[in-house]
Specification:
The complex is a heterodimer. In chain A, about 55% of the residues lie in helices and about 15% in strands. Chain A is of the alpha+beta class. In chain A, strands 6-7-1-10-11 form a 5-stranded mixed beta sheet. A 4-stranded antiparallel beta sheet of chain A has the order 5-4-8-9, with no helix packed on it. Chain B is of the alpha/beta class. The two termini of chain B are about 20 Å apart. In chain B, strand 1 (about 70-80), helix 3 and strand 2 form a beta-alpha-beta unit. Chain B has helices at about 5-15, 40-60, 90-100, 120-125, and strands at about 70-80, 105, 150-160, 170-180, 185-200. Chain B contains 4 helices and 5 strands. Classes of the chains: A alpha+beta, B alpha/beta.
């Protein structure tokens, strides 16, 4: 009966509801623009799961929802909780025997969510935006410096993942080809390369030349980097020229930057496949893999002043950022899923052989519950970040257009202002927040 | 080895290769300090600041008159590299050396982007504030205008070369250019350029 005890223990470790089903009502509220309700659900779930393996992802959802609801201090508290938890995982050994064994005997969803590279960057970016909204410029700059450091760290992690992917893909090429697992790879229309998030760099540049006491020249470094990553858009070339003139002593013009956050980032769906292992005892294993699914379409955004309309420039396609991360991480996911499925198949076989009908039933339960892909992802991230810069008109009135939706805003007094516009589903009013930068 | 066993073993192997985390102090200018090809490291800042300061002092461009040090303002230091850097890593070292040598003092009350330290201005705003003893507030005409400004640029050039099966060699060149301008005449009375060239093979990455 030893196998029985082992199976029972492992079943306890195995994940219950998938993240996709856990977040159903939350995503419904969020996508429908019921921000208050979404913030409530996220706060409740994050509280309930604050010590669980899903704590980080729920704190991230909570932080984003509270930010959209205008509760900036509470939002930052949630992001800090996520950050502390991520730091806790980072302090632990890179490879943990218990963690690997859990992954091998259950599934990857049973492991703690430690925050993906782009999560960490966006976490600091949203915290910075919250601090700017709260008028705490120095703290915002600290967050942006952290985001910058996370971007650099992610570039190194990406390189490691690519090398590891090449190794494991080569080793299990037959299994991967046999089950057409490479079809799980998402298409990437825009590839920012090793670059993680151009929007974060744009915001950092904006804050550097407007707020920083020193290091203002670094704004140009960031802007030049985004300019070359995005293929040299005219907006950024103008921005570089203008910032260079200002840093050289030219007078500040009255400017308003409008940041549009549109749509929703991709989510992960599960795909179950039979994968040939070319082993006599376990020729095939049934395994569950994640597949990235894009949501909605790209929406153009404009700022209108009087009769003139100016289009916002796409600064960051979050679909591309998430897809890039998914793509580099997928070979390792495939490899570990195959190993876990094979281990479970071997244990189940033993249980069937030794435990008769009861063993067969337990083995079935174990394999069914264990075959679960890790679908956890920060669902409240936007699909795109677009930015438009206009000279603030005399009456300070701007019309903001996202697809067919339109809203008006009167910009605060101040020389440089930022207006953040968040769009949800068509027909749901735009959420507008603003702060003075200078 | 059977494929199944091989697969499971391969999945567990990295977890068995455990090591211990360590932390230690190192000499900031010693051989143990980390050297990165694409970055300016602490030892680079120290070396360049030393060389530029020596050049400036030896040039005789700044001469104190009757033991009275000249006043320097920090102009624009352009960052034409691909990385965020704090130019104070360079400028502060030069300022400290000039200050200690008694040749020049740096004003923090004047700067291209406004004063480096707003306090000189803030304390003057207390004039006519009854809460403060007015005799302790600096009178008008006490701030000293600078004689010179120190400005410059940091430039980065990258190159790489591949020799057959050998690993790719990467090279980064950082040029530190400084100019000292006499603010009375607008003439650059001292100019210098120092280079740091670093070479290394492509970073080895793996599990």
């Amino acid at each position: 009966m030893r196998w029985g005890c082992h199976l029972g223990f492992v079943l306890l470790l195995t994940g219950c509801a998938s993240y996709e089903s856990q977040t159903g009502s939350f995503r419904g509220a969020w996508n429908g623009g019921s921000i208050g309700q979404a913030a409530q659900i996220a706060s409740r779930e994050a509280g309930k799961r604050s010590d669980s393996r899903d704590a980080v992802v729920w704190f991230l959802e909570q932080g984003a929802a509270l930010r959209a609801a205008g509760q900036f201090a509470s939002s930052n508290h949630a992001f800090e909780q996520a950050e502390k938890r991520i730091a806790f995982y980072d302090r632990q050994a890179k490879l943990r025997l218990s963690r690997e064994a859990t992954g091998l005997l259950t599934n990857l969803a049973a492991l703690p969510y430690e925050g993906r590279g782009y999560d960490r960057v966006m976490l600091n970016t949203y915290q910075a935006l919250n601090y700017l909204q709260l008028g705490q410029a120095e703290t915002a700059l600290v967050e942006l410096r952290q985001a910058h450091a996370e971007q650099d760290a992610e570039v190194v992690r990406n390189a490691r993942r690519i090398v590891a992917a090449r190794k494991s893909a080569g080793e299990f090429e037959r299994a991967i080809r046999g089950a057409k697992l490479d079809e799980l790879q998402p298409d990437i229309a825009l590839d920012y390369g090793a670059f993680v998030n151009p929007f974060t760099d744009f915001l950092h540049a904006l804050c550097l030349w407007n707020l920083a006491a020193d290091g203002r020249e670094n704004a140009l470094v960031s802007l030049r980097r985004i300019y070359s990553t995005l293929g040299g858009p005219g907006f950024l070339s103008d921005e570089i020229g203008m910032v260079d003139r200002i840093l050289g002593g030219a007078k500040y013009p009255n400017l308003t930057y409008v940041i549009f956050e549109t749509g929703v980032a991709p989510i992960r769906r599960e795909v179950r496949l039979d994968v040939p292992l070319y082993d006599k005892k376990v020729p095939y294993v049934a395994a569950a893999f994640p597949r990235l699914q894009r949501r909605g379409r790209s929406t153009h955004a404009h700022v209108a002043i009087g009769g003139t309309k100016r289009e916002a420039t796409l600064i960051c396609d979050m679909d591309a950022v998430v897809a890039r991360d998914f793509r580099t991480g997928l070979p390792a996911v495939i490899f570990r899923t195959l190993a876990a499925s094979a281990a479970k198949a071997a244990v189940a076989k033993k249980a069937r052989e030794e435990g008769g009908d009861l063993g067969a039933f337990a083995a079935f339960l174990y394999q069914a519950a264990g075959a679960q892909a890790d679908l956890r992802t920060w669902t409240t991230l936007p699909k795109e970040f677009r930015v438009c810069r206009v000279e603030t008109p005399g009456d300070r009135k701007l019309a903001l257009l996202v697809g067919p939706q339109k809203s008006e805003v009167t910009v605060n007094t101040g020389r440089v202002n930022v207006v953040c516009v968040k769009s949800f589903a068509p027909g749901v009013p735009l959420k507008i927040q603003q702060f003075r930068l200078k | 080895m059977k494929p199944l066993v091989k697969l499971i073993t391969a999945a567990m192997l990295p977890a068995l290769a455990l090591g211990c985390a360590t932390a230690k102090y190192v000499d900031h200018n010693g051989r143990d300090s980390i050297v990165n090809v694409g970055q300016i490291n602490t030892q680079d800042w120290i070396r360049v600041a030393d060389e530029l300061t020596q050049s400036l002092l030896l040039s005789g461009a700044i001469q104190s008159v009757a033991g009275k040090p000249k006043v320097l303002m920090i102009g624009r230091i352009k960052n034409n590299t691909t990385q965020h850097i704090d130019t104070d890593s360079l400028m502060k070292k030069i300022r400290v050396a000039l200050n200690k040598g008694g040749r020049a003092l740096t004003t923090t009350a004047v700067g291209l982007d406004g004063p480096e330290d707003e306090s000189s201005k803030a304390v003057r705003e207390l004039r006519d504030d009854d809460e403060f003893n007015q005799t302790t507030i600096p009178g008008k005409g006490n701030l000293v205008s600078p004689d010179y400004s120190l400005s410059g640029k940091i430039i980065q050039n990258n190159a790489r070369a591949r020799g057959g099966l050998l690993p790719t060699i990467r090279q980064s060149e950082f040029a530190f250019q400084l100019s000292l301008t006499d603010l009375k005449t607008g003439l650059a009375v001292w100019e210098e350029e120092k280079l740091i060239v670093k070479q290394g093979s492509r970073a080895a990455v793996g599990w």
